[in-house]
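Researcher: Next sequence.
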Amino acid sequence: MCTGFSPKTPSDKGSGGCGCGGHGHRPAPPDPRIIMALKFGEPVAHECRCGGGGGRCPRHYLAMAGLALGAFLVLHLTVNLLGLWPATFQAVVSRSHALGIWLPVLEVTLVFLPLAVHVGLGVRTLARERLKFGVQKHQHGSDLRQWLQRLSAVVMLGFLTFHLVTMHRWFGGRFDPHHAFSSASDAIWHFWGGLPAGHPGNLLFAQLYVLGLVAVAYHLANGIATGSAVLGFTTTTAAQQRLWRLCRVAGPLLLFVGLIAWHALAAK
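Model: Next structure:
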C-alpha cells in the first residue's frame, strides 16, 4: 500500500510541494498511459488540485491500486475462512467458477491490473528509498511505520509470487476448483509430494503462509490509513488518527481471520 504524505499546514500551501494528504485535495483521474512514466525526482506539470505547485504524485496511483487490492484480499481471506466447512467452501468456489469467461475478465480487471500498477510503482519506490530507516520522502506516520511498510512490501512480493505460481491455474498451480479443499490443503501442507505434513520441508513452506499473512495484515492496515490521507478521504489530523486507531484493530483481526483460514486448510 501507499507510504503516504501528511496534509499540508496552512503555512505550507504556497510552498510549491504536493502534500497529497487532504484539506480539500482531490487527485486528478488516473491516466493509464502515463502511470509507468511517472518520475519521482523531476518536476512535471501539476495535476493535483491542492492549490499549490508540485507535480503529479505517483502515490495517488499506488494508493488507488492498493485499496482495490485490499478489498480483494479481505474477500479472499473471508472465502478461505469457509475452509472450516469444506462443503460450503466447495460450493462458493464452484459458484465463482461457474461465471465462465467472466471469471478471467474479473480477475484481470479487478486483481491483476491493480496488482501490476501497485507492484510496479511500489518497486520503483523501494528502489529509491530501499530499506533505510527514516527516509526523507515520507511525511505521514512514524519512521517505524513507514519502514515496516516497505519491509512488509518485500515480504509480500515474495509471498504473492510463490502463492500465485503454486496455486493459480494460469501458472500451472495446484489448486483444483473441482476439489477445492483437498487441493488447497495439499498445496499448503504437502508442498513436497510424498512427504507427511509434519516433515520439516513441508512445515517450512506451510509457515511461509503465516509470514505472508502477517505481512499482508500490517501492509493493508497501514496502507488504508496512509492511502486514505493521500487520496483526501481523511482531510484532518483528527480524522487520520481515528482511522489509524481503527486500522490498528482491523489489522490484527484480519490476521486472525487469515490464521484461522490457514489452520482450517490443515491436512486432515
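Model: The two ends are 35 Å apart (CA to CA). Residues 1-28, 38-55 have pLDDT under 50 and may be disordered.
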